[in-house]
């Protein structure tokens, strides 16, 4: 292996087995190609995907596994064909780093839906056959197309969670026109995704109701995040009082919910958007058909919408609520994330702690 700018030894933190325990790990990044950017990583958000993949929840994790797909940093070097970035620019990388660049979805800037499958930022198989390694690391080399400009006035640490949590709720909100002032939005679950759905909803002028199983979330929902309404979802009277009152619901929770009950809260033509992963989606056809209602699914978003969201957040001063931690705290952060003990997203300070 040569060790030029793009291929110096990269220091990361990796899981070696399904225990998910992370520890320091050295590996080589590829050389910077003509279309590539080498990025010095300053921060990386901690997503539930980091828990699932390091612990082999899906059964196909490849070890050693370096997680992290909410990556921000500073451009170190650029390939000769790179147009949009120069050394020193603030830059971000989200949940995927490659795609076929030929299908209808790629052509539309919806690379995450690439018909041949987008290459995930970690534990994916890249076009050269190597296994991708994520942002719990000192630097990364990525094709320009999958990189985002972080506006200069936007704090790098705050930008990290936008690249998965933010875009995951932004995409269905845009797709279903949930940005119409005066409409009403229900948000199920108040974690990394849910708190961003509340922030976007309020920014769009929606009336936002938070649904949670935990009364302890009430104060933060109403006072910290400025939601309009808070409902304990196990309280049948409170739920019944909300029937036919919502235009949209975003379900960010991965626990199982009573879909029939939530569908009853939608107005005619209402949409329930699923961005979490419950064990099953079960409802009676009557719940959909009688009110012309829809259930739709979504994951992150394409490059076009991701850049639009970053620019919107900078222009409207929308910032995720974060807890910044050193890389040495990564294992504790994942344990706390499992317990939902974070308001609302951990961000690893790679620049000041990964040595």
TrEMBL record:
Q: Please give the superkingdom of this protein's source.
A: Eukaryota
Name the UniProt record assigns to this protein: Uncharacterized protein
């Amino acid at each position: 292996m040569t060790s030029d700018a793009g291929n110096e030894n990269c220091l990361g933190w990796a899981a070696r087995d399904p225990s998910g325990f992370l520890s320091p790990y050295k590996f080589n990044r590829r050389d910077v190609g003509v279309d590539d950017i080498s990025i010095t990583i300053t921060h990386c958000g901690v997503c539930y995907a980091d828990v699932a993949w390091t612990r082999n929840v899906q059964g196909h994790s490849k070890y050693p596994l370096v997680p992290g797909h909410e990556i921000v940093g500073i451009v170190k070097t650029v390939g000769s064909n790179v147009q949009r970035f120069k050394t020193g620019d603030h830059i971000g990388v989200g949940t995927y780093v490659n795609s076929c660049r030929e299908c209808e979805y790629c052509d539309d800037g919806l690379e995450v839906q690439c018909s041949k499958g987008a290459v995930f930022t970690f534990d994916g198989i890249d076009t050269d056959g190597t296994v991708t390694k994520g942002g719990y690391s000192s630097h990364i080399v990525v094709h320009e197309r999958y990189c985002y400009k972080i506006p200069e006035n936007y704090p790098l640490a705050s930008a990290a969670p936008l690249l998965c949590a933010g875009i995951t709720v932004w995409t269905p909100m845009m797709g279903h026109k949930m940005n119409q002032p005066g409409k009403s939005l229900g948000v199920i679950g108040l974690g990394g995704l849910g708190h961003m759905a509340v922030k976007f909803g309020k920014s769009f002028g929606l009336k936002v109701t938070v649904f949670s199983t935990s009364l302890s979330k009430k104060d933060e929902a109403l006072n910290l995040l400025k939601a309009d309404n808070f409902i304990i979802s196990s309280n049948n009277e409170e739920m019944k009082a909300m029937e036919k009152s919502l235009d949209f619901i975003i379900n960010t929770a991965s626990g199982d919910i009573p879909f029939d009950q939530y569908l009853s809260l939608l107005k005619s033509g209402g949409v329930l958007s699923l961005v979490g992963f419950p064990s099953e989606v079960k409802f009676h056809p009557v719940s959909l058909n009688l009110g012309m209602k829809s259930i739709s699914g979504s994951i992150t978003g394409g490059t076009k919408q991701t850049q639009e969201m970053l620019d919107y957040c900078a222009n409207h001063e929308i910032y995720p609520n974060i807890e910044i931690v050193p890389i040495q705290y990564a294992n504790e952060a994942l344990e706390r994330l499992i317990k939902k003990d974070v308001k609302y997203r951990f961000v690893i300070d790679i620049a000041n702690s990964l040595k």
